[in-house]
Please model this.
Amino acid sequence: GDSVTQTEGLVTLTEGLPVMLNCTYQTIYSNPFLFWYVQHLNESPRLLLKSFTDNKRTEHQGFHATLHKSSSSFHLQKSSAQLSDSALYYCALSDYNVLYFGSGTKLTVEP
Amino acid sequence: GGIITQTPKFLIGQEGQKLTLKCQQNFNHDTMYWYRQDSGKGLRLIYYSITENDLQKGDLSEGYDASREKKSSFSLTVTSAQKNEMAVFLCASSLRQGGTEVFFGKGTRLTVV
Model:
């Protein structure tokens, strides 16, 4: 079945350094939708960005990701981490029927 | 905009008890979901519903029942609460299946004593 893998459970960075959170997926569906959701402390998850176009960069709020179907990846990146980026980040896959989430990466940005 | 309201916010139950969690949305969305959130395990799908009176099982449906009697509401029942079920349950909705943004409620935190 469909699945999403986020290899890092915890990432700790110093403010100003680049962010890269890994996401790979498995699906038999040829046109999956990929998403990144962010959940700040004591809040609900909310959509950060999404894509269904191969090799096209998607950007929002300083974050960007590119869907690469050849490697089944949708890594999240940001050039310079801010303290306010500390949160739980979920990669998710939709095969048109339902949204499957990865296990999440907790990002902590330190001064 | 819209809102998803989950009640109660906190639910304390006894082991073996039947417990019901409720969810209402005013987005007029077709699809609604129940996810369970456990630390380190991400969001796991329990049930979803693509329209009124429809129910589809997710990967974690064993031990749960769901009901979608109206388009705007979706309830989840824990049939027999177990101590290892302490978790946050998140209700969500989307305009239709797949591809569209999913909006989440603030969650119900379940504690079983």
